[in-house]
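Chapter summary example.
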Amino acid sequence: MRFAIIGAGMSGILASIKLSEAGHDDQVLYEKADRLGGTWRENTYPGIACDVPSHLYSYSFAPNPGWSHQFSPGDEIEGYFERVADDYGVTPRIRFGEEVTRTEWRDGRWHLETGAGRTDAADVVIAATGVLHHPRMPDIAGLDTFAGPCFHSARWDHDVDLAGKRVGVIGTGSTAVQIISAIVDEVGHLDVFQRTPPWIFPVQNTAYGEDELAAFREHPERLTQLHDTLAELFSGFAAAVTEADSVQNQSIATACVANLENSVADPELRERLRPDYQPACKRLIMSGDYYEAIQKPNAEVVTEGIESVVPEGVRTKDGELHELDVLICATGFKADSFMRPMDIVGRGGVTLAEAWDPRPNAYLSISIPDFPNLFMLNGPNGPVGNFSLIEVAELQMAYSMGLIDELAAGRGTEICATQAAMDAHEEARVAEMGHTIWVTGCSSWYLDDRGIPATWPWPFEDFRAAMAAPDLAAYDLR
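The structure predicted for these 478 residues follows.
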C-alpha cells in the first residue's frame, strides 16, 4: 500500500515512523511550508514555550535528556522534531512547499493534488494537519487602517524592533500571557486589551541544572521515571476538568485564587484581573511571572471594550485613544478548521464541507463515514484540554494501525466508521459534557456553534482504553 501523510509537524512525523516500523515504506509526507515542525515552526513569538512539561511533551520512543527547562522554549521543541525526523529517516520522505489542495476518493484510492501542480494517488491518507494553525484575526473596525506594524502572534514580524515602543496586545490567552511576560521589560509602554481575564495557575519554569542533565544522559531510566510521574500528575488534571466537582478541580481552583490574591497588590487591579468563571473552564494558563509583568510601571490592563482601531492606535468604547506604535493580535486560531480549506471528496462524491455541516465530527476523532482509508490525528472532539497532544497522537496512531492492519491483511480494501457508530458516540459525548468544567459558564475556543465543548469529556484513562484496539463492529470494511 501507498500512504500519503498531510503535514510534517508532530503528528505527521509520528505517523511516518509508525508506518515504517510496520513495514509500510511506500509513503510520502506533504508539507505546505519549507521546513517541518508544525506549530513550533509557525509560532516564533517572544516567550513561546509549551504548557505541557517537556519530558511529557516528547515521543515515548524518543526521550530527550537535553531539555533545558521544565517547559522548554519553542525553538528547542522544533529542534527536537527535526532531530527525530532525521534520526528515523522521515526527512527525505517530506515534499516541502507542497500544500495539498484537493484529494478525492476515486476508483478505490485517494487522488491528491498540490498547489505546486503535483498529482499523486495513495491507498491511505493520514491527515496530520493539526488543530491550531489557521490564525484568527479579530473582527475590529479599522484594523487595516493602523499606521504601524500590526500582526498576528503566529505571524510574528521579527523585523519590528519593540525596544522603547508603545505596544498593544489584544488578547489574554496562553500566547498573550507568554508574550506579555517576555516583552514588558523591553517596550516603552504596554497596553494589554483584556476582554476576559484568565485564571493563572502558578508554575515556575525551572531550568535543569548540569547535574540533572548529566543524570538524564547517563541514566535513561530516570527519564522514564520522570515521564511516568508527569503522566500521573496530568491524569489527575484530566480528572479535574472532566468532573467539575472533583477534589482535583477544587485544588486547582484554590491554587489559582491564592495566586491572584497573593500576587497582585493593588486591590482595584486585582479585581479587574479576577475572572467571573471557574478555573479551567477556559484552557488553564500556566505562568509564574504574568502577574508580576502586568504590575510593571509601564504596563496597563485595559478592560474597556475596543470600539475601533485608528491609524494612531486603539480607541476604546469610553472614547479614550490608546496611542500605539505596534499592535499585536494574540487572538487565537480557527479551531474548527482542521483539514480545511483543503477540498476533500469522499465516497459517492460527498464533500467534507457537506459531511461537516453544521460542524466537524469524526468517530473517536479519527474516522469519518464515507471517507474510507482517511485517518485523522488530533481530529475533531479529541482530548485537547491541557493534555500532551503527543501522547494523544501516539494512542490515535496505534489505533489507526489496527485499522490499517485489516487492509494489509487483505480483509478489505477500504474502511471507515459507520454513520451509526459516529452518531452514537457523538450522542454519548454530548450527554457526558454536563459533568465537565468547560460548561460551567465561560466562553472559550473549545465551544462549538451549539456551545458544546469540542473535546473528550471522559477521564483520560477512558481515552487510553478506547484507543487500545478498534471495535470493528463500528466500521464499514469492504
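To summarize the output: The longest strand covers residues 100-106.
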